[in-house]
Request: fold
Amino acid sequence: MGLGIVCFRENPSRKKYEYFPPVGTGKIEEWENQGWDKADAITYLNAYYANLVLPAQQIYLRIAGAADYWHELDVRVSSVLAGETKPKAALDDIYQAWEQITERYGRDNQKKLYAESYPA
Reply:
């Protein structure tokens, strides 16, 4: 089973924040009951956990309209990966979209929220 197929299946870890022993008390049967292959579930969950405990983490964007910024980025990157848009054009589009979002929420407010969301 390829990981592309696995990604579209139900993910039991989203229902319960449990990993397999020794980290958690999750059971492989929970994953198999959702149609996951045992080896794929173990590989996926171990990799997912390994990323959560890395010493350097990208902190979530915690400002007004964060989902809007990410949406605009996702749409443009997907367009480039699909061969529909040139990278430079996508970057220009992202810049314009992000400027509109920033203006909608207020540039000074966004700067304030951004500064407050990260420890000094």
Remarks:
- The helical segments are 3-6, 28-32, 38-52, 66-81, 87-105, 107-117.
- The two ends are 45 Å apart (CA to CA).
